[in-house]
From TrEMBL:
Entry annotated with the keyword Metal-binding: no
Protein name, entry field: Nuclease SbcCD subunit D
An example Gene Ontology molecular-function term: exonuclease activity
Calcineurin-like phosphoesterase domain location: 1-167
Keyword presence, Nuclease: yes
Coiled coil: none
Top-rank taxon, per record: Bacteria
InterPro entries linked: Calcineurin-like_PHP (IPR004843), DNA_Repair-Maintenance_Comp (IPR050535), Metallo-depent_PP-like (IPR029052), Mre11_N (IPR041796), UCP033093_metalloPase (IPR014577)
Species name: Corynebacterium sphenisci DSM 44792
CDD domains tied to this protein: MPP_Mre11_N
Listed Gene3D superfamilies: 3.60.21.10
Family of this protein: Belongs to the SbcD family.
Cross-referenced Pfam families: Metallophos (PF00149)
Keywords annotated in UniProt: Exonuclease, Hydrolase, Nuclease
Amino acid sequence: MRFLHTSDWQLGMPAAFLARYDDAVPAEFARARLDAVERLGEVAAERGCAFIVVAGDVFDSNSPDPQQLGRAVERLRGLPVPAYLLPGNHDSLDPSSVYRRPEFAGLAEHGVHVIRDSAPIEVAEGVQLVGAPFRSRTPAADPVAAALSGLDRPAGIRILVGHGQLEGFGGEALIDAGALAAAVAEGVVDYVALGDRHGTLEAAPRTWFSGSPEVTDFDDVEHDSGRVLVVDVAADAAGETTVAVEPVRVGRWAFRAIDADIASDADLDAFLARLAELPDKDRTVVKYSLRGEVTIGQKLRLDAALDRFRDLFACLYRRERTFDLAVVPGDGDLPDLGLTGVPARAAERLIAHAQSGSDGAETAARALRTLIRLAGKES
C-alpha cells in the first residue's frame, strides 16, 4: 500500500508581518500555499498513491477568509485520489469548526473525507486508518492515546493519524511517546502519520512528522519544511510489515534569517555575496541582522546594494531587535566619495551630526545618503 502523508497546510495563514513591507506579498504567499496543495496532488498521482492523509491543520484557523475557504475547497475537490483530513489544533472539530461549514457538505462524493472520530476507516481492502481528531484547540488529554485505547493487532495494515508534539521533541508535549512506541512495537499500528511540527522529522521507528508542504517560518526556527512523504507499507504472508518513507519537496518559498558581523570590506562583501547567491529571490523572504562597525563609505555601499536587492526579493527587511551596526568615520571618507565644494562642506556637517548621537542624527545620516545619490555617487 502506497499513500501520501502531509500535514499543516495552514491555508489562510495571514502572514500579516509581510504586509508591513509590501502589501502584495501576503496574497502571493497565500496563493503559494494553495499551489502546494496542487503539487502534492500531482505527486500522489505520479507516484501511484492510493490516498492522502492530512495530519491536522489543513486551515490556519476555524474562521478562514471566505475567498481562501472557497479556493481551498476547490483545490480539495481537484485532488486526484481520496483525501482524509484530520482536524488539528488550528482547525479543531469544535462547534465553530470550519468542517461544519456548508462548503464541506457533499465533499465526500469527491473523495474528501473529514476524520471526525477514532472509529477505524477501511480505505482499501485490508487497510485501516485510525484518526485522533482534536475536538478543541487545547485538549485536556492525549487524543492519540484515546484513539489507541482498546485496539488489538489488526489482520491487515493499520495507519494512525495524529496531531501534536511528542515528548522530548520541544514545545508543549501532548502525545505520550512511550505509549505510541509500544503500539508500534506490538504491531497495533504499522505507521504513525503525525502533524503539528512544521519540519519533516522521523521521530521514532515508523513514526514521522511530514512537516508543512510550504514554509511557514524562518529557517532559524523551522527546519526541513516544504516536503510531503510518500509512504510504502507492505505486509508479507505472515502478516509482518515493512515501511519505507520518501520525503518529496513540493514547497517553493523560503524564509531566510541571515546574521553577520561586519568589521571590514571583506565582511561586507561576504554578506552581500550571501544575498546574491540565494536562489529564487522572488519567492524568498529575508530578514537580516548586522552587528559591528562600518565607515560612511561602507554604509553607503551597503544601503545602495540593499536597495537593489529589495527589488529582487519577495521581501527583504532589517531585524530591528538584533540590528546593531554603528557608522564610524573612516580615513579619507570624503575624498573617496568624490565630493568637492558646497556638497563636500555639507557632507562634513552631516557627518558630524550623524556621528554625534544627538537628536536628528539618524535624519542627518539619511540626508547624507540622499546628498551622495543626488551627486551621482553610489559608493
